[in-house]
Amino acid sequence: MTSSPPADATARPAAAPGALAALTARALGTCARTPSLLLTPLFTSAFFLVIYEAQLSALARTATPGGRYVDLVLPLCLLTTAFTGGATAGQLLVRDITSGYHARLWLTPVPRWALLAAPVLAGIAVLTAQAAALTGLGVLLGATPAAGPAALAALVGATVLLGTGFLLLAAAAGLHTGNTAAVGSVTLVFFPLSFFTATFVPRDLLDGWMGTAADLNPLTPPLETLRGLLALDWPDQTPWPGAAVTAVILVLGAVAARLALARRTRTGV
Question: InterPro entries from the xrefs (predicted)?
Fold first, then answer.
């Protein structure tokens, strides 16, 4: 006579989707109650978008496609939103770790991967809303994609895809250290790099050491891909360099998050 498996062994797979949905909903609720997670990255990027457009458009109009400087600077602000908003997952994990809620969840049958996936999914939802709102502001300021309205959806999607890699990196930092400063370091690494791309002018106007720095900067291909979605028609798009960098960031983030989860599983909470 064969013995039946323990009750929790059969219940755990069936409960996984429900547990993930509940944890994600809780994480989204935390974001809604925490303006620093939901609004700060959006307001910061929106502020710079308005200031850059207002102060630099008259000087740079001749260097931008169609004379619309916002087409050049909106992708830069979306790039910034991707890695500043990407800290959301790490901050959510740190809040739960420091409050002891994460330790209590660790004692339940909730799948370990769901404890990591829930804040990442919540971060993706928040980042999607932030990117859509910022793109809408860009349209109000005059952004007009050469490929038509569908390019705006592609712009938001590309920003979220890139931001997901940063969400995973921030989640790994938060899970590994339980420290807010460590999560913030993910943003601190990439924010200065964004100023060593073709920040305020098209890439072909940079020369000297700044041009070399932009060529070597890993953020340049994603930025140029985002700009291409506004400036170029579909047949002229060259998204592959930006897609390759995005894929690398996603893989690095996934590996780092997996290692951080495995370490916490071994050492306990």
Answer: ABC2_TM, ABC2_TM_bact-type, ABC_2_transport, Nod_factor_ABC_transporter
Query: Cα(38)–Cα(269) distance, rounded to whole angstroms?
Result: 28
- Amino acid residing at 197: T
Single out the residue of 115, 137, 133, 122 nearest to residue 86, CA to CA: 122
pTM value > 0.90: no
Tokens 């169609």 belong to 66
- Domain extent, residue 144, equals 8-267
pLDDT one-digit tens code per residue, 103-124: 888 888 888 899 999 999 999 9
In a domain, 1, yes or no: no
Chain centroid offset of residue 268 CA: 29
Total number of domains in the chain: 1
What are the structure tokens assigned to 167, written together? 């969400």
pLDDT at 255: 96
Task: Give the DSSP letter of residue 195.
Answer: G
Residue pointed to by tokens 């429900």 = 18
Residue 257 binned pLDDT confidence (cut-offs 50, 70, 90): very high
Label residue 8 by pLDDT band (50, 70, 90).
very low
CA distances from 247 to 85, 130, 134, 222, 253 (A): 18, 21, 23, 11, 10
| 122 CB burial (10 A radius; 0-12, 13-18, 19+) | buried
pLDDT, one tens digit per residue, over 204-250 is 888 888 889 999 999 999 999 999 999 899 999 989 999 999 999 99
Asked if 220 and 198 touch (Cβ cutoff 8 Å), the reply is yes
**Spatial separation of the C-alpha atoms in residues 53 and 60, rounded to whole Å:** 10
Tokens of 210: 């700044």
